């Protein structure tokens, strides 16, 4: 303990002395995070104990393979760390199988797709504009180049139309269906997706990167009993390090692709040696730490709060005249149609950033604007809830959002003017809110 603490203290001092340029940048980033209101739905703030693991000497270990079967010596501790991370992930999600090595959620998805499918097989995934993810078969991703991909969308109300998905699946006979999304504000019916997959003999992959914390806390239906494979990134709603995770429930023991071995065996080989070499063991330790934190009552309270925060934030925004995709939210995410008020997403994103509010532009259903412009803004409450803000504090957040947006004069798709007095007023209010609700464990 003393050795580790001493190491981190000296490491920081050495960094300051040896490389003041990067040291200053790291300090600046810490200050930026403390002083701004992060409402990017795909982010959270990892507790310092997670970052201590991620920056530890375990990162020095080269350890291809799995615990007890490595291709390098010196893995005694790394093996224990990885076994602990796997056990904690399985316990947290009630899974029969867990692989903690993927470097990201995207890597996890690629490993799964490339292990269960052959090039040219059909994948049915949610369209990017409807709320899906690049790795669910977008033509911009390798998944859209190596597989025949068909997209399902959402109905005019913004909700998934399960009858339409079932009809599409019957027609195109996919070998794999992906459910889960990166900008869908509503509950996903994993049991219904499994029925659809079973109806056409497809594998079902649930990507819960955005809602993993809600799932772990019982605040969103659980995909693990239904999907053959579940994936997630660990840095979004699990408040963990950059990284990914693959899980499987009762299907882990069933035959793998082509009837060979087991599904669990295929997933192990999918990550190593097929898709990755040595894992990031420091990252694996950080995942283990995050999984343990996510198993606590405090985390369950946080997950409930972030869901209730999002629900209230949606109400407050609608009360202030904002149009929301689906009219509200069931999870942590609120999707705003700023195009309806004549703004582009990119202009709103930039104007809010000038005011200290961090959001991201997002295409919305039927969007005619390109991905770098968009008509939508996506908000999330992961970090607001971590700061201790509850539903009663969402009026203040919605107010600041609307004050900033209403002050913007849109001049072109990407050009705008934001009068300094309005900007400074919102910025000062944001700074006050951040001081009143500091990030736990971070210097204020
Ligand atoms: N998946 C991307 C997002 O939802 O923004 C980033 O992780």
Automatic annotation (TrEMBL):
Pfam families: SHMT
Annotated ranges, domain Serine hydroxymethyltransferase-like: 16-399
Protein role: Catalyzes the reversible interconversion of serine and glycine with tetrahydrofolate (THF) serving as the one-carbon carrier. This reaction serves as the major source of one-carbon groups required for the biosynthesis of purines, thymidylate, methionine, and other important biomolecules.
GO biological process, one term: methylation
Protein name: Probable serine hydroxymethyltransferase
UniProt record similarity statement: Belongs to the SHMT family.
Assembly and interaction partners: Homodimer.
Lineage: Bacteria, Bacillati, Actinomycetota, Actinomycetes, Streptosporangiales
Record keywords, A-Z: Cytoplasm, Methyltransferase, One-carbon metabolism, Pyridoxal phosphate, Transferase
Predominant cellular place of this UniProt entry's protein: cytoplasm
Native organism: Planomonospora sphaerica
Residues modified as N6-(pyridoxal phosphate)lysine: 236
Catalytic activity: (6R)-5,10-methylene-5,6,7,8-tetrahydrofolate + glycine + H2O = (6S)-5,6,7,8-tetrahydrofolate + L-serine
């Amino acid at each position: 303990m003393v050795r580790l603490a001493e190491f981190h203290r000296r490491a920081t001092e050495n960094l300051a002395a040896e490389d003041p340029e990067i040291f200053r940048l790291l300090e600046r980033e810490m200050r930026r995070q403390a002083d701004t209101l992060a409402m990017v739905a795909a982010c959270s703030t990892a507790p310092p104990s997670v970052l201590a693991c991620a920056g530890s000497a375990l990162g020095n270990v080269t350890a291809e393979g799995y615990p007890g079967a490595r291709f390098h010596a010196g893995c005694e501790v790394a093996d224990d760390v990885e076994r602990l991370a796997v056990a904690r992930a399985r316990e947290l999600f009630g899974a029969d199988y867990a692989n903690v090595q993927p470097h990201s959620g995207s890597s996890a998805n690629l490993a799964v797709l490339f292990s269960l499918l052959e090039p040219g097989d059909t994948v049915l995934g949610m369209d990017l504009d409807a709320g899906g993810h690049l790795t669910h078969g977008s033509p911009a991703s390798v998944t859209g180049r190596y597989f025949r991909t068909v997209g399902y969308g959402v109905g005019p109300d913004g909700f998934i139309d399960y009858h339409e998905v079932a009809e599409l699946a019957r027609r195109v006979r996919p070998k794999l269906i992906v459910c889960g999304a990166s900008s869908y504000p509503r509950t996903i019916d994993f049991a219904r997706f499994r029925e659809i997959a079973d109806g056409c003999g497809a594998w079902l992959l649930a990507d819960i990167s955005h809602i993993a914390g809600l799932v772990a806390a019982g605040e969103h239906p659980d995909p693990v009993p239904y999907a053959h494979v579940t994936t997630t990134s660990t840095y979004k709603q699990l408040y963990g390090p950059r990284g990914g995770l693959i899980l499987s429930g009762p299907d882990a023991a069933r035959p793998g692709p082509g009837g060979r071995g087991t599904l669990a065996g295929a997933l192990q080989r999918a990550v190593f040696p097929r898709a990755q070499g040595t894992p990031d063991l420091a990252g694996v330790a950080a995942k283990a730490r995050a999984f343990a934190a996510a198993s606590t009552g405090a985390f369950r309270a946080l997950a409930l709060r972030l869901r209730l925060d999002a629900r209230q934030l949606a109400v407050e925004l609608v009360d202030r005249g904002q149009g929301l995709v689906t009219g509200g939210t069931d999870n942590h995410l609120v999707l705003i149609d700023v195009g309806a008020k004549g703004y582009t997403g990119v202009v709103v994103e930039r104007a809010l950033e000038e005011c200290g509010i961090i959001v991201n532009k997002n295409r919305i259903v039927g969007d005619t604007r390109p991905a770098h412009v968009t008509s939508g803004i996506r908000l999330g409450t992961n970090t607001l809830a971590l700061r201790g803000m509850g539903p009663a504090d969402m009026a203040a957040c919605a107010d600041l959002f609307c004050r900033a947006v209403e002050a913007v004069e849109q001049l072109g798709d990407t050009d705008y003017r934001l009068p300094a007095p309005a900007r400074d007023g919102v910025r000062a209010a944001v700074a006050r809110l951040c001081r009143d609700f500091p990030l736990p464990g971070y210097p204020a």
